[in-house]
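Hey L., structure's done. Input below.
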Amino acid sequence: MVYILIAILIFGVLIAVHELGHFLAAKACGVRVNEFSIGMGPQLLHKTKGDTEYSLRLLPIGGYCAMEGEDEDSDDERALNRQAWWKKLIIFVAGAFMNFLTGLLIIVCLYAGAQGFYTSEIIELNPDFPQQGEEGLMPGDVIYAINGERVYLKSDVSLIMGLSDTGKIDMTVLRDGKKLERTLTKQVYTDENGKEYEAYGFTYGGIVKATPLLRLQYSWYQTMDYVRIVRLSLQMLLSGAAGVNDLSGPVGIVSTITEVGKETEAEAGFGAALESILYFAAMFAVNLAVMNLLPLPALDGGHVLFLLVNGIAVALLAVNNPIAVIFTGCFMSILDIAGMQITNLTAYNEYITDVIIAVIVYMAAFSLVIKMWISGRKKKKPAHTETAESTAEPAVPQDETGAGVLPAAEGKEAQE
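Output:
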C-alpha cells in the first residue's frame, strides 16, 4: 500500500511542478493568472492574493494554471492572447523545463554521496582479438559512441549493442583526446573451459574517483540517458518494434513501481527501495518533459508548433511573400481536418481534455520506458546508478548489465 501511495504522490508532484513552471513564467512575463491549483476535484483550501486564487484540491493527480486569455480572447492588457509570441513561447516551454530540471536535481541529490563512477573504458582485449594496436583498439581507449549513439554511461554500451545485434558495430573511441573510428565484427573465441563462444573480444568498465564537478557531469549524463530512453521508446512505437501488447496504463505503471519497491526492499531494505523509486521518479520527470514537447494539439509542444507556424506565416506576409498564402492556407486546412475550431493559433482549451489526452499519451510511451528500465535493472543489484561506492581498490569493471551501486572490488568484468 505504501508504494501505491508513493506512486500517486510522484504523479501528483511532477504534474504540479509542471504547472508551477507555467505559473512562474506567466508571472515573470506579466500575464494575469486567474487560478493556480495543486490537485484536481473539490477545493480543500483556497486563498486569493492579488489577481490570483491559489487552490489546494482533493485529488493529488495534477493541477492547472488558468491564465487570462488562454481559452478565449480577452481585452485585458495582461491576457495571454495579447502577449508577444516570445512570451507565449517561454510560458508554454516552462512546464517541460521544470520537469526536466526536477529530474536533473533528483539525480544530482542521489549522486551527491558518490565516491566513484563506472566508465566505458576498455581495460582488456582478448588475446585472440584481431584488431589490437594503434590501428585497432587498445586498453585505455574510452568508448565514445556505438553505431552513432553517444555513450554517456557504462550501461549504455550493452543497451546500444542490444538494440541491433547484427554481429557488426561501428565504434568511436577516445584515445589521447582524439576520436577514432573502428568497425568490429563478432569472432569465435574459446573460454578457459575450452568452450567456444561468440563475442567482439573486448572488456570494458573502469572506475574514476568522484569530484564535485564529475558528480554534476554524470548527473547530466544520466539525465540525458533518460531522454534517449524516451526517444528510443517512441522510435519503437513508430517503427512497429513495439505493439499494443507492450503498452500499459496508469494502473500498470503503479504496479511496476510497487513491484520495484517490494523487490528492492526484500533484497536491500526500505532505504534502497526508496532510492530506486527516486531514480524512477527522475526518469518519469524527464519523460514528462520530453513527451510534453511533442507537437500534439493537447500538449505544450502543440502550442509551440502553432506559435512557430504562426510566426513564420506573419513574417512571410510582412514581406508580401506569396508563399505565405499557401503556407497559411495549408496549415489552417490541416487544423480543419483535425476538427480544431479555434480563432487563434494559440488559444484553445488546455484543462480537463488536455489532462486526459496527455495522461493517455504519457502512459502509453512511458510504459515502454519502464520496460527498458526494468529489463536492465532486474539483472543487477537493487540500486540503479552509475556510481561506485569505493575507489580504494583497483578499478575492477562492473557487470555488463550496467549500473549499480557497488564497491569497486565487487564489480564483474563486462565482456563483449
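The longest strand covers residues 33-49. DSSP finds nine helices and 15 strands in the chain.

-- N.
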